[in-house]
Sequence to fold (886 residues):
Amino acid sequence: MTLFTIVVRGLIRRPVRTGLTLVGISIGIAAVIALVGMAWGYEKSMVRHLDVMGIDVVVSNMSGGIMPKVYDASLEEKIGKLPRVKESTSVLMQMLSVEDAPMMMVSGREWAGFTWSQLKVVEGRMPKDGSENALVLGRLAAEVLKKKVGDTVQIDAMEIPVVGIVDGNAVVENGAIILSLSVMQEATGNQGKVNFIDLQLVPDTTKAQTDELCKQIKEIFPEGRAMVASEVVGTSQGFRIARAMSWSTSLLAIIVGVLGVMNTMLMTVFERTHEIGILLAVGWKRRRIVYMVLWESALLGFLGGVAGVTLGAIGLKILETTPAIRGLLEPDLGPQLIFISVGIAVVVGVVSGLYPAWRSSRLSPSLAMNG
Amino acid sequence: MNTAFPHFRQLILQMAFFGTLVFAPQIRAQEATPNAKDLAAKLSANLQDGSALIRLKLETTPVAGGPKTTLQLQVKSRRTKAATDIIYQVLWPKERKGEAFLLHKSGDNSPTGSVFTLPDSLQPLSASQMKEGIFGSDLTYADLLENFFSWEHQALVGEEIIDRVPCQILESKPGGDDRSIYTKVRSWVDTKRMIPLKVEKYLASGQLGRQVTTTRVAKDDTDRPVPASVMVQRPGQTSVTELEGSNSKHDVTFTDSDFTAEALRKLIPATSAAK
Amino acid sequence: MTETLKAGSNELVYEAIGLKKQFDGGKVIALRGVDLQIRQGEFVAIIGSSGCGKSTLLQMLGSLDKPSEGVLNYRGKSIPDMPDPSDYRAHEIGFVFQAFHLLPTFTVVENVQIPMFEGALSRSQRKERAVELLESVGLGHRLNHFPSELSGGERQRVAIARGLANKPSVVLADEPTGNLDSQSAKSIIELLLQLHRDLGVTLVLVTHDLTIAERATRTVRMKDGLVISDQLSIPPTDSP
Fold:
């Protein structure tokens, strides 16, 4: 028999209460797993895509309104020739209110540019070439607009047939209307204009080289701005908000967990006053009693954490396969998050055991035994 | 697998949105109380923004519930101190594509206008029709033309905070040659961004005839904050109209022929207008 | 046996001078000034009617409670002033209670091991020693039973085994037969006497049963919080 035996015995003797507390903690940890997993997944998927592509730079003129102002498409040629640029492609993208749908992203992309390659056709086909009067809808966009292949979508005054539904493997892409740059320019009356130039850089481009490139772009296009995508990811407001929200919700869940464990441990200590008195009478040091209570609550936290991770993982799997959400989320359930969550659960256990442990060590043995 | 760019763009958009929605209202400067006449003159000048091409969504919702009517509109306007020309054309839905009207007002003359209805009927607008709603909405032709900031009587009558933004209440009353069905218009003006956040128009009976509330402020293509979405309500009426601007383009080259009744017959896509 | 007779000359284990104890801010006075000396190897029976303060005295000897006033030393060291009395409780004394005070969720062999956590024994050594102790009290066949499965006499044997876990030099027993039928009580007393004799432990036993007191080497009689008599006796059962 070891102290661990005693700790485990303490939990087993009240299976219902221990079980309920476990449920409490595990729900809290499941919330951490689900929420933080989603936030991280969102972030990670972006970082992963960036990794695949190397360092990317987006050139635009951010001064006007919600959408960057349009500028002359010929700029791409000049920027594309700059050193370290491997490939470049132009985009004309606008937030438009389309038919009776709310504002949505309409993205006109230079035909054959590298931004087309990621799209997977779910239904129908891709436009035949850059001049075909055709567009494809992201899966979500098709749902929002209630359109099928063969219908038409009116962009401003132009009616454009839907030739395909695509999966862009990202929420933003799936919510967009995607068409070739020239058709987009025609529909919106922006012939020869673009508002984004996407750059793919030569692999192993250093930060200094990227900065130098941005400087050169600034010279060619003074009112524009070249932004390094990877730098924006971590610091962007959207991410910070998503992260803060998931953590603050999780924090609430954790607080509930702490209170649950603390309550259980307090009950345990009160209920075991007599027993603790006996332990003191047979010579146990108060420190050992404190350890016993803390180990017990830590174990409770650990078990709750493991159960919570399992629960959260199941929850995420269910969410992932729910038709309405499928494709929108790429939750990240890596060892790091599991480790952190279980760690949190253990810390929760220990923290909530502190007060009960202190209480128990203050008991007077004779009163405890007679009480 | 390249989804990075669209994501990235989404971020930029998000930042822009947060910029306008979250931070803009908090930027407030305690400037000296402006003079009513100057304020009205500035607001009036802002309205006369030259030639512009605007995309709007017009939604009319019955108060009692039921299906709402949604129209996508293309607006061409040319507003100068001397004259105002406006053309509204329906882009969507398909069945109504091409419906249009034209409004014109120069100097102190009475406004004129024409309405084009499908399949092919072009009618002038009478003075009484000017008080009717455009495309069956709660907004009248006269409302579109009328610039109450240029009326003779302007007075500041108070201050109020709307959506956390301190506003001056500007009261405009027609006088002299000003013609209007309204006898008094009150505007809650955000003097920092120089836009009205709420406008109340009173009828001769003293009743509130129309209330226009700004529901979204955004910067337009000239980097100026504008009421991008507004809601028009008429007390006692059965519907509410919302206008949601999605796109604007200023300094567009129009010719006089763009603003003739004949021009209403064909829906000229933005393409040809934007040179 | 001869040693017990010479008890008076042995090392002083407990010394109480003017020991007082009040409860509830003086409303209840349990001890009114007890003077007492107990020497190594003695079997002292403290007797008296209930409420005379004998249990309170025993608790103080066991450091489970502190005196309000007076001196109480164990081998020359003040018990109330011990910075950590748990060492004293764990290694110097063994407690046997009237109500047994076994831990219900642990088996017999586990209960006996509980005090050994404060010792230096390894896990297997603890178990080994617990088995030995239980065999010596005649419970070798009950090792893995829970206390609730045992009779009162058996439970008290477990408690005695537990009390001896860390080889104490003193056993403090508080009415150890109080909850037992006469047959079990008799065998428990025999067991305690055997320990006293074989292990040479100093045994301090609180009881109101005069037949038990007769077996002790010394009888201390208490009344109203005071010692009223203190006499050496020759235990008749020592010579069978």
Q: What stands out?
A: Chain C touches chain A at residues 59, 62, 64-65, 84, 86-91, 95, 97, 101, 103, 105-106, 110, 113-115, 117-118, 123, 126-127, 162, 165-166 (CB under 8 Å).
